[in-house]
Design a protein that fits this description.
This protein is mainly beta. The chain contains no helices and 7 strands.
Length: about 110
């Protein structure tokens, strides 16, 4: 066994919606050499593996998306010897032209 036979699970996974892209944010861990990203479009169907991304800063961007489309994401940590940890739960994303709608004051 090597030190990364037990990969710590990803924590603090969240989605930040932006125009035509989403940011997948998570707590970086020195045991992760990369993360594998999975995406599903719409409410049903299978997840597609998008590939691996650098895990050092705890941020992955998925660009070229359609605004107001439903997406779901999971990420999976990868350690030194290629061993993988558990996938995260699926989180919902919806890129939007204005993801932060202005607050409307009650009159």
């Amino acid at each position: 066994f090597t030190a990364d036979d037990q990969i710590a699970p990803i924590t603090n996974f969240r989605i930040i919606n932006l125009p035509e892209r989403v940011m997948l944010e998570f707590a970086p861990d020195p045991g992760y050499t990369a993360v594998r990203v999975f995406r599903r479009t719409g409410l049903g169907g299978a997840f597609t593996e998008l590939g691996e991304a650098d895990a050092s800063n705890g941020l992955v961007v998925d660009a070229g998306l359609v605004n107001d489309q439903d997406y779901f994401y999971m990420i999976q940590p990868i350690g030194e010897s290629g061993i993988t940890g558990r996938k995260t739960i699926a989180l919902y994303a919806e890129p939007a032209v204005d993801p932060y709608q202005p607050e409307v004051a009650a009159v």
